[in-house]
Specification:
Elements (H helix, E strand, L loop, with lengths): L3 H9 L6 H10 L10 E2 L8 E7 L4 E6 L4 E4 L4 H9 L3 H8 L6
Antiparallel strand pairs: 1-2, 2-3, 3-4
Helix pairs in contact: 1-3, 3-4
Length: 103
């Protein structure tokens, strides 16, 4: 069973409408469930962040910067991830709530 907060995250990023396609993609890449699949996170255009993804089961957030450098943040709260998606400034949110916790 998928936890409610993960379902909310999936709906927030638009996976709900494409769940079948995402599940097929996940299975094709060797993931046993959507909880193990890195979910691409949409956020407002940022001069700092280029992209981000989140794996619900492990809580791993991976952030890629405009420079191309990527950092992973293990055990990231889903609340933090939803905050990043909803932030008016993804870079400011990253600096305030995520930066400095790399694993």
């Amino acid at each position: 069973m998928i936890p409610l907060q993960v379902l909310e995250l999936l709906a927030e990023v638009g996976v709900e409408a494409e769940a079948g396609e995402v599940a097929v993609t996940a299975a094709g890449k060797g993931f046993s469930s959507l909880l193990d699949f890195p979910i691409p996170l949409p956020f407002k255009k940022s001069r700092c962040l280029a992209s981000a993804s989140y794996v619900p089961r492990s809580g791993e957030l991976t952030v890629t910067f405009q420079t191309g450098r990527s950092l992973s943040y293990p055990d990231t709260s889903i609340v933090t991830v939803i905050g990043l998606i909803r932030a008016n400034s993804a870079g400011s949110y990253y600096n305030a709530y995520i930066r400095g916790r790399e694993g």
